[in-house]
Amino acid sequence: MNWICSVSLAVTLALQPAFADDIIGPHQQTPQARDAFVSGLLKKMTLDEKIGQLRLITVGPENPKSAIRDMIQQGQVGAIFNTVTRQDIRQMQDQVMQLSRLKIPLFFAYDVIHGQRTQFPIPLALAASWDLEAVAEVGRIAAYEAADDGLNMTWAPMVDVTREPRWGRGSEGFGEDTWLTGEMGRVLVKAMQGNSPADRYSVMTSVKHFAAYGAVEGGREYNTVDMSPQRLFQDYLPPYKAALDAGSGGVMVALNSLNGVPASADSWLLKDILRDDWKFKGITISDHGAIKELIQHGVARDPQDAVRIALKSGIDMSMSDEYYSKYLPGLVKSGAVSMAEIDDATRHVLNVKYDMGLFNDPYSHLGPASSDPADTNAESRLHRAEARDVARKTLVLLKNRQDTLPLKKNGTLALIGPLADSQIDIMGSWSAAGVAGQSVTLLQGMKNATAGQATLLYAKGANVTDNKGIQDFLNLYEKAVTVDVRTPQQMRDEAVATAQKADVVVLAVGEARGMAHEASSRTDLTLPDSQRQLIRALKATGKPLVLVLMNARALTLVEETQQSDALLESWYSGTEGGNAIADVLFGDDNPSGKLPMTFPRSVGQVPMYYNHLNTGRPYDFEHPNKYTSHYFDEANGPLFPFGYGLSYTHFTLSPVKMSAATMTRNGSVNASITVTNSGKRDGATVVQLYLRDEVASISRPVKELKGFKRIMLKAGESQTVTFPIDASALKFWNAKMQQVAEPGKFSVMIGLDSVRTENAEFDYL
Ligand code: BGC
Questions:
Q1: How far, in Å, is the centroid of ligand 1 from the Cα of 234?
Q2: Distance CA 573, CA 581 (A)
Q3: Ligand 1, atom 11: closest residue by C-alpha
Q4: Where is the signal peptide (predicted)?
C-alpha cells in the first residue's frame, strides 16, 4: 500500500458515519432492516439532533455558507435545497462527515420540474403529448441529470388538477383532468425513482401540493379552496394517490386551506387520509414558509402555536423557516409536544435518507471529486435529441385552414414576434439548472431547417407587453424581459414591411414565462395588447398567417383564431423547442398533441371544464332556449375542447363495438374502435375513452376520461384499439361518501377529442 492509498483509506474511515458498525455487510433495503437501523440511530440522538433533522433550508443571504457550516456542525440541519453542483454538495456533505457528532448525511433537493440541465417541455405540455413513454423518458433523463449533479430528491411531480387557467401554476401540472394527471404523476414517479432512489441515477420524488392547490378560488394564487367531499375525492385526490401508489417517497404539503383548514394544519388530510387510509410511509414536507403562515391563516396565535399545530398535524420537515428549530425544544420541555411525536417525524426523515442509500454511502450521488465535470453546463451533459423528440409530441395544432401547414422550405418566410427569439421564455418557468443560452429559439430552429433552401426574414414586431406595470413585475427578480426602446408603431411598421417581402408569415406570440409561474395569476386570458395589435397589423397585409403560441395556460383566442390561417400551440417547449417547432411547421414531423385543458372563449366562462354536470336545464345548441344554463353575451361552449388537436393527416373512426351489452358485478366489458389513417401522411393520434353514468344516486358528469391510447398509423393503415372497462371505472363517491359503482346504463364515448365521439352503451347489473 503506497502512502496515497493509505491516506485515502484513512480519510474514508474518518468519514464513515459513527453508526457504521450498525451496518453489517451490504445495505439491506428491507423495511425490517430499515426500522432496526433507524430505531438504533434514534436512540443515539439528542433532542436537538432530532429537531435538526426536521429542518430543510436553502443556502442564500439568510443562510450564508458559513452559517450553514455551523448548523451542520451542531446537527441543526437535515436537508438542503437549491444547491445544484457536485462541488457545493460535496463540501456540505464533507462538513457533516467531518464536523457533526452523528454524521447523519444531508439530502439535497431541488425543483426538477421538467428537466435539470436539459429543459423538456413544461408539464402542461407533457400532458398534451398523452404519451406515457415519452413522459417516462423525460422522468428518467431529468432524474439522471439531477442525480448526476448530486441531488437526492426532486419537488415533483406536481399533480394539482386545475380548472383554472387564471392560476399561473397550471403550467407545472397536467391540466384539468383527473385520470390524465394521475397517469402522468404515476409514470413520472416510477421513472424518476427507478428501481430505488438509492440507485446512482435515480432521485426520490415529492408529490405536490397536497391537496387541491389547483382549485384556489378565482385562480388567485395562494387563495382559499372550498369544495365538497365528493369533488375532492372524485376529482382532486386521485392523482396524489396514484403518484403515492407508484411509490413516491415524499409529499409536499399545499399552501392553501381546504374547507377552512390550512393544509399544513390539517391532521385529517396528513394523518387520517395520507397515513391511515393510504398507508403512506414516506416524508411530509411543508411548502416554503408554510408553518409561519399558519399565523396569517388565523389558526395559530403565535410561532409556538404554529409549530405545535404543524407538527401535531403531521408535517415532518419544515421548509425554509427556523420555527421548528427555535420552538420545538421549548414545546417538548413544556409537554405541549411529546418526544414520541418528535421521534415520529424524525423517523420519517431518517427513513427516506435510508431509502436514498445515504447511510450506506453519503456520496452515492456524487462519486469521487475527480469525476466532477470540468464545466457543469457543458453541452455534453445535455440530452438534446431526446428533448427535441419529446417536444415535437407536445405541440397541438388548433387550426389549419386549407392546409396552410406544413410550410414549404423555399421562397421567403417572415418570422415575427416577441417570443420568436427569446431563449429564456422557451425554456419555461421552473427551469431548474437550465441555461437560457443553451435553448434553441424558433428563429434558430427555422434557420436550421431552411438553411440553403429558403430566405428567412425576422422582426420582433412588438414587446411581449407594453404595460409598464407588467414589465416591472416580470423583471422583479431577474432580467426576464428585454423591452425594445422603439415605439410600438416603429416596431409594427418594421414587422409589416418584413411581412410584405415574404410569402408567408409565422408569428410567435404568447406570454413571457413569468406570466405563467408561481405567483402569476391573471384576470385576463387574452394575449397582451401589444401583440394583438401586431397580429391585426400583419393580418392586414393579407399574407398567410401562421400563429405559433408560446404560453402555459389556456388562453382566450377567439379573434386570433379568426385572424390566423394556422394556429399551433407550442407551450414552452424547452431547450430544443425551436428545432421541434420547426420540425412540425415544415412537416418533418406531424403534430399529434391534444389539449389537456379546455380553451374557453372568454375569461367570464371560467371555470370551464369538459367533465361538468349536466344541470337541470342544459343548454341545447340546436334548440336554444332562454331558460337554460348559458351566458347570453357569449357563444356557449369552449373555443377548443379538452382532448382536441389536429393532424396533417385525417383519421376516421369505426363505430364502437362492445364485447357485451351488460357487465356483471365484478366483471368487465371491452369497448373497441378501429382508427384508420385515411390521409396521405403517417401520423400519431390519441384515442380517448369517456364514460357517463346515465342515472345515479347523485348527478354524475356528462363524461369522464377513463382511458387513452396514443397510436401511430402509417398512411392508409388501421388499428383497432380496445379499452377494458371494469367496475373501478364506474365507481364514484356517493352522498354518504361511500365509493360505489351503481347498477344502470353507462354510455361509452370514444373519440380523438372530448366532443366528437362514437358512442355505445352497456348495462351494469
Ligand atoms: C413552491 C413549491 C416549491 C418550493 C421550493 C415554493 O414556493 O410552492 O412548489 O417546490 O417553493 O422551491
A1: 26
A2: 8
A3: 288
A4: 1-20
> 758 and 720, same structural domain?
yes
143 domain residue, yes or no: yes
pLDDT of residue 28: 63
Task: Report how far ligand 1's centroid is from the alpha carbon of 480 (Å).
Answer: 20
Atom of ligand 1 nearest to the CA of 158: 9
Q: What is the pLDDT of residues 677-724, one digit of tens each?
A: 999 999 999 999 999 999 999 999 999 999 999 999 999 999 999 999
pLDDT of residue 277: 98
> Do 193 and 329 reside in the same domain of the chain?
yes
287 is catalytic: yes
> Does 662 lie in the same domain as 748?
yes
Q: Which of 148, 235, 287, 355 is catalytic?
A: 287
Q: Tell whether 161 and 268 lie within a shared domain.
A: yes
496-501: Cβ within 8 A, 24+ apart = 496/537, 496/538, 496/540, 496/541, 497/459, 498/414, 498/416, 498/457, 498/458, 498/459, 499/414, 499/416, 499/538, 499/541, 499/543, 500/541, 500/543, 501/412, 501/414, 501/457
Q: How far is the CA of 287 from the centre of ligand 1 (A)?
A: 6
Neighbours of 44 (CB within 10 A): 13
Note whether 245 and 269 are same-domain residues.
Answer: yes
Domain span at residue 739? 651-764
Query: pLDDT value at position 17?
Result: 46
Q: How far apart are CA 245 and CA 507, in angstroms?
A: 44
Task: List the chain residues with pLDDT less than 50.
Answer: 1-26
pLDDT of the residue at 589: 98
Residue 326 and residue 226 share a domain: yes
Q: What is the CATH number of the domain that holds 224?
A: 3.20.20.300
Predicted local confidence at residue 27, as pLDDT = 55
- Whose C-alpha lies nearest to ligand 1, atom 4? 288
Please report, for the domain that includes residue 732, its CATH number.
Answer: 2.60.40.10
Pocket of ligand 1 (CB under 6 A): 111, 155, 208, 287-288, 518
> Whose alpha carbon is nearest atom 2 of ligand 1?
287
Give the residue, by CA position, lying nearest to ligand 1 atom 12. Answer: 111
Dihedral angle computed from the Cα positions of residues 314, 318, 321 and 326, in that order, rounded to the nearest 10 degrees: 70
Q: Which pLDDT score, from 0 to 100, does residue 15 have? A: 42
- CA gap 267, 272 in Å, rounded: 7
**What pLDDT, on a 0 to 100 scale, did the predictor assign at position 651?**
98
The helix or strand, by DSSP H or E, that contains position 426, with its residue range, turns out to be: helix 423-427
Q: Which atom of ligand 1 is nearest to the CA of 320?
A: 5
Specify the residue with its C-alpha closest to ligand 1, atom 6: 288
Q: pLDDT tens digit string along 236-265?
A: 999 999 999 999 999 999 999 999 999 999
The residue whose CB lies within 8 Å of the most ligand 1 atoms, and thus the one to mutate among 155, 222, 264, is 155
Query: What is the Å distance from ligand 1's center to 18 Cα?
Result: 34
Instruction: Give the bridge partners for 153, in sequence order.
Output: 109, 204
